[in-house]
Automatic annotation (TrEMBL):
Domain ABC transporter: 4-235
Family listed: Belongs to the ABC transporter superfamily. Drug exporter-1 (DrugE1) (TC 3.A.1.105) family.
GO molecular function: ATP binding; ATP hydrolysis activity
Organism: Nonomuraea soli
Coiled coil location: none
Presence of the UniProt keyword Transport in the record: yes
Protein name: ABC-2 type transport system ATP-binding protein
Length: 314
């Protein structure tokens, strides 16, 4: 039985179709990433799976319980860490954990022990009895995740767990999330805008666009579907994009233009560079740079959603 199974989820807000038949299945003990730009439908999916809102149609089960028929069972089995930090700034780290565990009706002795265990695990022991308003963003985020785990859930939902963190705190959070799934067999569903985060953490990835899953697989599998290298050309003038596109048609495939950037694919990118430069020069197109890279998740996104990820996110 999968830990999470959602089939054909549809959710509409007024005229806005947030989910348009989204289907995912998450095996127990794995980290599943929902990757997509702002407005793709990631948070709406989490809201449905965590019983905060009901789908217009479709079904969803979490650890075997139907989210609409049996929300109480689902809530006991899951931990949620929402996009916004939910720690009480006027309580200490330990108090936050105890307050949160109390909501689940945990017994005081067990709760104290579990709070200590989590403070230790998230390296917050020294700060445990300080008001959390004195914590750094990274520490607050760690406490937030610890709160989500207080009642020993089987499935943890993390909605953009590293948004707003500096690179160091982000890397530390990645280490924690990977360890949670590896050491404790926790099933984790996370949403992210960061291609790098999805690449690093998720064993399976669903790329979401306009409320649907447009690509599904392991990060490596998705990347290896793409043949050859990605060639990116920065033009001096956006007005040259059409001419440049035509000049590259015989040398590369899958050419797309966005502003002054052109992306294309070539079997051997490095070998294609001189020919690309020569063809653009012959067409009278001024070039600022040409770069070649192995396919990234960005290329996977472009292939499946027909758009460049960063642009959509911006
Ligand atoms: N309560 C609401 N009322 C109206 N529209 C909503 C509501 N919640 C979400 N939407 C709309 O539904 C669409 C999907 O939103 P959702 O928050 O699920 O996307 P997301 O992928 O999580 O984006 P983000 O990365 O910004 O959190 C968006 O167009 C959004 O504006």
């Amino acid at each position: 039985m999968p830990a999470i199974a959602a089939r054909g989820l549809v959710k509409t807000y007024g005229k806005q179709r947030a989910l348009d038949g989204l289907t995912i299945e998450v095996p127990e003990g794995t980290v599943f990433g929902l990757l997509g730009p702002n407005g793709a439908g990631k948070s709406t999916t989490i809201k449905i799976l965590t019983t905060l809102t009901a789908p217009d149609s479709g079904t969803a089960h979490v650890v075997g319980h139907d989210v609409t028929r049996n929300p109480g069972r689902v809530r006991l089995a899951i931990g949620c860490v929402s996009q916004k930090i939910s720690v009480d700034p006027w309580a200490t780290g330990r108090e936050n954990l105890v307050l949160h565990g109390g909501l689940y009706g945990m017994r005081p002795r067990d709760l104290r022990r579990r709070a200590d265990e989590l403070l230790e695990r998230f390296d917050l022991k020294a700060a445990a009895d300080r008001l959390t308003r004195t914590y750094s963003g990274g520490m607050q985020r760690k406490l937030d995740v610890a709160m989500g785990l207080i009642h020993r859930p089987k499935v943890l939902f993390l909605d953009e767990p590293t948004t707003g963190l500096d690179p160091e705190a982000r890397a530390a959070m990645w280490t924690e999330i990977a360890a949670l799934s590896r050491d404790e067999g926790l099933t984790i569903l996370l949403t992210t805008h960061y291609l790098e985060e999805a690449d690093k953490l998720a064993s399976t990835l669903a790329i979401v666009d306009r409320g649907r899953v447009v690509a599904l697989g392991t990060p490596e599998g998705l990347k290896s579907e793409l043949r050859g290298d990605a060639v990116q050309v920065e033009l001096a003038e956006a007005g040259d994009a059409m001419r440049a596109q035509r000049a590259l048609e015989r040398l590369t495939t899958e050419i797309t233009a966005a502003g002054r950037s052109l992306r294309a694919r070539a079997d051997d990118g490095a070998a294609a560079v001189p020919a690309v430069l020569a063809a653009l020069d012959a067409a009278g197109v001024a070039v600022l740079s040409v770069t070649v890279a192995r396919p990234s998740l960005d290329d996977v996104y472009l292939r499946h959603a027909g758009r460049v990820f960063e642009e959509v996110a911006a």
